[in-house]
Amino acid sequence: MNEKRKMRVATCSLAGCFGCHMSLLDIDEKLFDLLEMIEFDRTPFTDIKHCGPCDIGIVEGGVSNAENARVLKEFRDNCRILVAIGACAIDGNVPALRNNIDLWDCFQEVYLYEGGLEGNQIPNDPELPLPFDKVYPIYEVVKVDYFLPGCPPSADTIWKFLNDLIAGREPKVSYEMLRYD
Amino acid sequence: MNTTITIDGKTVPFTDGQTIMDAALASGIYIPHLCHNPDFEPHGSCKLCVVSVNGRNMTSCTMPASEGMVVASDTHELNEDRKVLVQMLFVEGNHICPACEASGNCQLQASAYYLNMLSPHFTHFYAPREVDASHPDIFLDLNRCILCELCVRASREIDGKNVFGISGRGIHTHLVVNAASGRLGDTDFAVTDRAAHVCPTGAILIKRQGYRIPIGKRTFDQRNISEVQMESSQHVEPDDERKT
């Protein structure tokens, strides 16, 4: 009998805090079980630089700059199933608190007006990604297949959700698993 | 005279003058609602309580019960409609639950949990809205206001103060404070007023009270909104309004 092909999974953090990735690691020793079922492609856990063809892409964080948008498009182009994980990817969350502050005002406040920054300037090297006027949920940029809310979702919730997804079941987020905070 | 209607196949008695919502709550049947509070006149703005009455959709909080009505409420179709309404409320305001003191005690959030809302689905408005911290004891954060007008009603009808009002049209409709300056601090609003405790979301918050209840012990951590609202419709505790 052929050994079952392992699912290929990519993850990334856009305008995220890496908290959703930490919550994934909180499944603790079940990580060994997870690695029996999946193989990681591009993720902060591996050294792979670009997302290749994958079964599942898991995106944490909203879209706040041009680099976020580029990475998100790469994930959408390569992942059969794209999952928005955590409040930031789903509604912008706390980073979106900047959406009602003028971007230029934000920059001046941080890079020019702060005490002890005399002679500073707003970073303008072309290597730096340009920020967007607002922070956007990822579903406002690309099509998203599944949503897993929480800030972050609990490890148990992520484990249950991934198990459904990997087994090809429609993932259900039960009342007990559902929270936004 | 006692007469009856049926709600989801169950026979429910009502007395003259009772709405479908009144009859349902009295019989222990939960119909999702946000702007309705049994202590106040019906409002009809949130539309969550829409039910099918003899095949037509109507708000159960405003529709008087009449003999022989056949009402459907807990159906997949109506619950999906209700979820869309909640999604509309979420994208219209700035509902950032992880940073909100009302999280876990918020009826909008609890309704979204109850209806299994996994994402707000629509394009966010990110409307610029104001926070008024001028009052010594109370915050007013319009980012979270859903225009249920419970504070307006409570202030007028119970507190006798007329602190709040609604102004503007269409999407620009917003809560206003009845003071020349428009600031809450320039009114006679008091932390003991009913209107300070009736907000179903985190739009009106008491200062220096946030995050006191540990996660796991907040109103909706253990029980869903149908259980909490059914219980509170039997006896309302004025000092614990956010649970109703």
| Structural class computed from helices and strand pairing of chain A | alpha/beta
Mean pLDDT score of chain A: 95
Unreliable stretches covering 5 or more consecutive residues of chain A: none
Strand content of chain B is 15-25%
Nearest-angstrom radius of gyration of chain A?
A: 18 Å
Strand content of chain A: 15-25%
Tell me the layout of helices and strands:
The complex is a heterodimer of chains A (181) and B (244).
Chain A lengths: L6 E7 L5 H7 L4 H8 E3 L13 E7 L2 E3 H13 E7 H6 L11 H11 L17 E6 L9 E3 L6 H12 L15
Parallel strand pairs in A: 1-2, 1-3, 3-5, 5-7
Antiparallel strand pairs in A: 4-6
Chain B lengths: L2 E5 L2 E5 L5 H7 L23 E4 L2 E4 L10 E3 L3 H17 L14 H8 L16 E2 L5 E4 L8 H10 L4 E4 L6 E4 L26 E3 L12 H4 L2 H10 L10
Parallel strand pairs in B: 1-5
Antiparallel strand pairs in B: 1-2, 3-4, 3-5, 6-7, 7-10, 8-9
Walk me through this protein's architecture.
The complex is a heterodimer of chains A (181) and B (244). Chain A is of the alpha/beta class and 181 residues long. Chain A has helices at residues 19-25, 30-37, 66-78, 86-91, 103-113, 155-166, and strands at residues 7-13, 38-40, 54-60, 63-65, 79-85, 131-136, 146-148. Chain A contains six helices and seven strands; from the N terminus they run βααβββαβααββα. In chain A, the strands form two sheets. In chain A, strands 2-1-3-5-7 form a five-stranded parallel beta sheet, with helices on both faces. In chain A, strands 4-6 form a two-stranded antiparallel sheet. The N and C termini of chain A lie far apart (45 Å). In chain A, 38% of the residues are buried. The model of chain A has no long low-confidence stretch (mean pLDDT 95). The mean pLDDT of chain B is 94. Chain B is built from six helices and ten strands. By secondary structure, chain B is α+β, with helices and mostly antiparallel strands. Chains A and B meet through helix 4 and strand 7 of A and helix 3 of B.
